[in-house]
Amino acid sequence: MRTAVALFLALLLLAPLQGDLAPVADAPPFQDQSSNETIISVDSTNLRFSPSSVTVTEGETVRFFWSGQALPHNAVEANGVFDSGEPDRNVDYVFTFELGMNGTYDFVCEPHAALGMVGQIIVEPAPTPPPTNQSDNESNMSENEDMDTPALPIVMAITAVLVAAAVRTRRD
Question: Which domain does 105 fall in, by range?
Fold first, then answer.
């Protein structure tokens, strides 16, 4: 009898737990903006940008960063798309290539352009998401609705009552 009562109480306590019994897919990790950042620095021994050529995708950020340089530098795009400002020994400048900005961007360090301190950024188009089909979305929704089990607490409660009744009847 005590076992039946314990089972009944356990099932009764678990009855309010409801929801989807399907495994939950891992959520994508949070992406910080810095994860889409490419850093270009200065190799002051050779008066070069490092790296001198990078490839990014629309929506990504390029960061020009150097500090404590013996000579002042800057990064200026040939058509004025971006400009890190006046040459300086310490620069921390970011530029994000928005959607529609795919192409090739040549830039220079103004004081050292004649010495070959040039660079290039190649911006590739952002991937386009696949088109969504209305009927696909509806079938996915109905599949997800089938996985929900809102009646589970009711079924568990009825089962607990039936088990308790069967145990009691067997004892009597």
Answer: 33-124
